[in-house]
Amino acid sequence: MNIKQVNRTFMMIIAPFFGMLLWMLISTLTIQLSDSAIKLPDLQVWNDKNSQIMQGLDDAGSTVHFTVDTIEKSSKLYNQITDVTSSIVQTASAQAKRPETIYNRRITSKLGTPMDTVHSDKITAELYRIHQSTYSGYALKVKLKDPQAMKMTLGKDKAGGSETTMQAVKRYGAVAGVNAGGFADGSGKRYPLSTTMLNGSYVGGFEASYKDLTFVGLDKKGGLIGGKFHSQAQLDALSPSFGATFVPQLLSRGIKLTIPEKWSKSPLRAPRTVVGNYKDDQLLFMVIDGYNESGSSGATLAELQQKMINLGIQDAYNMDGGGSSSLIFKGKVINSPSDGQLRPLPTHFLFFK
């Protein structure tokens, strides 16, 4: 084989490798050129996008300022609306209380200026002096804002027990106290007369009314209830909380009731304790002074009946009187007990702050 043949043969052998190398060089150059060609259009797109983004940020900034301004204006408007609404509520509340205030002012004007007052979120109690040509005493006007501000207690907390109204007031920490129902003595003990209720339960059971005896007390909402009851169901229907019994009832719905002859004359005059209610459910207790129980001092039931009418009372009941009449206010004995001292009793009405 000559040199030409050797060269030809060698060229044939390396030709594929040389072709492959040449292809690779060309491909690389094409890719680079392609990359360069891509980069130029992408840069323009980026500039366009960047301009759009910047414009968007400017628009967003304007929107944020607008939103903040809108929120501030809305907040101011909300506060104004709230203030106006609050003012309307306060005005409405004041207007709603106005009739009550006017009514209270009217009934209070008939009593005069209070000697003393107890005021809390549970009760308002006002003490007044009563001066009439034939008798004198005291009135206690009570507004119960909470039914629990008034309770009835048994003497020493047991049937047959007795204690003065002052002792009951001190023992319970009450701010005021008034004697309650009548009683009967037996075996050295003092028992409540007829139907008596304490904390929603009967003390000694229910007893139908007889001989003009009248039950008087408060229902579970703090309203005055009373009258003659010939069955337990009649009384239970009024949801009584507590109450005691004596005689007679003086007024019913602002109308005078006939006073039994026995009670209108025997005794004619005496120290008295009566209770009544106004149209707005305020209570009025009157405790009238007298020197004794002989009938020569104190008030007649007819006089107190008329006095209650004049004061605007709706329902009124006579409680135990004579030496039993007791009025305690802020730790002091207000009336002048005809016995010369307070009488131990089986039932008392107490008032709490």
From TrEMBL:
Domain Phosphodiester glycosidase: 172-352
Domain of life: Bacteria
Alphabetical keyword list: Membrane, Transmembrane, Transmembrane helix
Pfam families: NAGPA
InterPro entries membership: NAGPA
Transmembrane parts of this sequence: 12-33
Statement: the UniProt record of this protein carries the keyword Transferase: no
Record's protein name: Phosphodiester glycosidase domain-containing protein
Source lineage: Bacteria, Bacillati, Bacillota, Bacilli, Bacillales
